[in-house]
Structure prediction request, 1219 residues.
Amino acid sequence: MSEERPAQAGSAQAGSAQAAQAGSARAGSSQAGSESGSAQAGPRPAGGAPELVVLRLARPYLNRLISAGLLAAVTEFAALALMATATWLLMAAAGQPPLDRLTVAIVAVRALAVSRGVLRYTERLAGHDAVLRLVTDVRTRVFATLAARRGAPPRTGDALSRLVSDVEAVQDLLLRVVVPGAAAGLVSVLAVGLTALVSPSAALVLAGGLLVAGVALPALATALTRRAAAEVAPLRGALAADAVDLTHGAADLAAFGATGAALDAAQRRARRLARLERRLAVRGFAVDAAGVLVAGLTAGAVVFVALRAGVGGVLVGVLAVGTLSAVEIALALVGAARQWTALRAGLARVAPLITDTAEQAPGTPATSTDAPKTDAGPAITDGGRTGVEERTPPEPAPAALTTPSGDRGGTPDLRFDQVTVRYRSGAPAALDTFDLDLPAGRRVAVVGPSGAGKSTLAAVLTGAVRPDGGRVTLDGRDLGTYPPEDLPAVVGGLLAEAYVFHATVRENLLLGRPGADELALFAAAEAAGLADWVRDQPDGWDTVVGEEGAQLSGGQRQRLALARALLAAPAVLVLDEPTEGLDPVAADEVLAGALAAVPAGRSVLLISHRLSGLAGLDEIVVLDAGRIIQRGRHAELIATPGWYRDQWTLQQAAEHGYLAVSG
Amino acid sequence: MNRRPFDPRLLRQVPAARGDLALLAFLGVLAAGLVVAQATALATLLASAFTGELNRPALAGFVAAVAARSLLVWAQGTVSARLAATVKAALRADLLGAVARHGPGWVAGQRAGQLATLAGRGLDALDAYFTGYLPQLVLSVTVPVAVLGRIVFADWSSALIIALTLPLIPIFGALLGWQAQAATERQWRRLSRLGGHFLDMVAGLPTLRAFGRAKAQTDAVRRMADGHRVATMKTLRIAFLSALVLELVATLSVALVAVPVGIRLLGGGLTLQVALLVLLLTPEAYLPLRAAGSRFHASMEGLTALDEAFTLTGAAPAPTTRTGALPDGLGEIRFESVTVAYQRTVALRDVSLTIRPGERVAIIGPSGAGKSTLLGLLLGFVTPTRGRVTVGGVDLAEADLDGWRRQVAWVPQRAHLFAASLADNIRLGVPEASASAVDKAVTDAALDDVIAALPDGLDTLLGERGHGLSSGQRQRVALARAFLRDTPVVLLDEPTARLDAAAEAAVLTATHRLVAGRTALLVAHRPALLADADRILRVDDGRVTELTPQPTGEGR
Prediction:
């Protein structure tokens, strides 16, 4: 009495179309992704095939993985043995022997029947446990690699979710390909060996059937799945683009009378895709059909050969039933092969992210724990839910963290000396021989039209971009010589695209200065105009701001980011568009509050496209196309013809005109 | 979840699927018959092998049954994949067709994103449902019936036990079971998607770096990932346990059948052939039920997509195809006591105004006051809740909308650019336009310098949603569309919003050229745009008041 394995049976039959789908989805995204940074991965990462990279990383969990694989093999074998023993039992019983000759078999059948389920339960738990431990490592490593890289991490939501699913490809590789594959291989070898004890010729037949089911068919399935994915992916991508155009562009299409044509094109494509999918299914399911055929034919051939070889009748029955089970187990490799094909693109993308740190930190847990242990307290944790005890830092932040902000050496003098930045050779310079002096305590604004080089300036200051020419110095020391972890304490603040974490308001703010006390928090929030909102929340500082800060309005996000920068209070505070997303009145208030909150003696570099509220600054620098076209104080600049005065007039008219009209 | 395994709306809404569905059911019946045939042949073969003899007819029968099953697996796969493809194509056509029929007003907002996802990749989730779950669902009905039918004739007492224990699978499944398993499975997916906020951390890396916290955070990532692992294992333990119970129920049921069979066989009360048949067939009766149950969750995504598609296409108002009178674009535009009420807000209240041919009217007012609704009315995207809008005396609500729109050019706040060549984007309203006409529109829209800088010029392919062009460049493409259309009426919706000074200047010049000599409605918030206006209307809280034209551009 036996049943087959529901999970594998499922993937074997449904596999072809599903795997084709997954494969094409991943292939499609890999096309889109290759331009966004994973290009350097190439088809072959440094560490060899991506599968090997994963397996190398799995070394600490090898024992767990091997025991999971063995358990899986034992489970499969128990299913086979159950069926074989039950057949033996019945056929032996037909000879009407004394009952005691059957006792062992009866006990074996009962034991196998119960243990099979229990074994499967243990195997699944062991496998998932091992793999999830590995995935924890993978996540940590991927993060560490991305953190160490100077370049920007993937920014679009699409690329991000792809990163997450790529990490999961590691999980699927082990759980759905390696473990079941190894188990099927092991059981196959065992089945052939046991059959050989009974009849070598029958064993030969079985081996042949198993080779077809476990090697030839999976290889065929791999090839077919890969080709299907390659054919389907571009069409699916195009159809997705059509859907976007027809929905998001519905108004444009309707207004210009072009809806009909666009709809026809999309429907033609949908029909073409349907035709292609039908054609591919005919090929793909042929593999599954062949699997059924191989199982039956092998069983028939085994019966034939065994009878010819004079094997006893009872054992022939056992061999026949065992063969059916064994081939079915080997057929699980077809599903595994499809899975593997679908996973390859994701694995190829994730492998370089794992290998980068592999050399530098062979014992990641050990090396990474001692350094950050001291300031691990205020780290952003799990949305304030699992990390309750970690939310308020129990130990005071180490003094080293707060000292660079001025208590020790005071504010350094920042100097830009003929700084030139060119993103591509031959392209116009984003920043062209830029000179700026920011002695301690000075407050300077950099303004200019979009694309003038303002954000490049901020990127140079934070070390994200190295100048191609000239240098940036702090008290004469080149900015490039600062370790990336230390620089933010000296130069930093609110940069473009400030991110609000899915965590409490407190945790988000403490990121700026770990260990800051309640008073400092309130002072920063007050200056950024966030304090009232915090007081209104039932949970106050412990209000969890939703995913990507979704519970916050755009204005509140900006205030939170600003408060965080003010709390960080680096010696040279950089504020990149601090009032973005605020209405004019609020923007003026917040900017004034923020500037007032910066202690005298600290330097401020304000980057803004808005010219309101700059009257109190020591100097205003107007950038255009990477060059300084005007500089001076606000009062001087509005008295002089030029970009600043024109823009000032325009902005004033727009804001005040607008206010007057709508007020 | 209230999901039934099969959505009957499928039969109604996709008639093309009926044939294949019936075929699939028929194949399921055949498959059940073949399961029985194969087991019968094998039992006969082995029973004679017991005596050391090769039963050639039985072997041939077994091989034939296997071959037929193999063909059937292929047919089931092919038919179910064909069904999936048919349904997906039909639903895609329905969904996108609904967009075309109901117009932009219906699609606006969140629905657009939902539709795009669904009609794009969302429906592909149906593959798993149709090729994986549905055939199994059919088998879970046909196979137990066939097995019972066969065993009743061979050994009725075994059949009775099977009939009594079989319902235990769905009962235990429901008790423990499939729903809970599906729920935990979903939760597991969600958990892993969040990846212990791994995503959050990666997305926020620039910010972490900006505060020098990136490396320190690595440890937090490890701790969170580890916590996530522990939570996941807890969930899995329960999910796997329910699978274990179901497996034990099935195994013990089979044992209940097999033990008496063995005892009777030992006592000589049963032939070996019947005993083998019962042994081979009984597990087959329980298997499809469990397989269908365990695959149910995998098919959920497909069922959800299906439900969404039916809800979206079903809830839409009946389309109105109109072939009414053709309004004259050179006629007078009149709003007569027009009120537009949306679900929660009233966009316009009792608005009456007249726009004479050739008049350039600027519309100002705070955002959300109803400015865009005025334009939407004229485009036919919005219909008045009360009152009417007439053009040359023809009520737009009954007019030939396509014909009217041919006389209108529209420059929206943020024009949608299509994943096509730049030239095709400009030709949107006039697909047959000559190259020289396109060139002229390009020059008029001050787009020529942009195109000169592009490697492939007008043939440059734009990415999805016009990826690759700046906001200012997009607006100029929208203006080029309008120039090429060369219509008596132009509607501009804040064409210079979100532009920096340089881009604004270029767009302003082009706008100036566009409105000259046409009837123009111009939603404006920048003073520079008001310079062209003959009249200025102020919209506030749904009411329209006329302002006397005044010199603007200076702050007041």
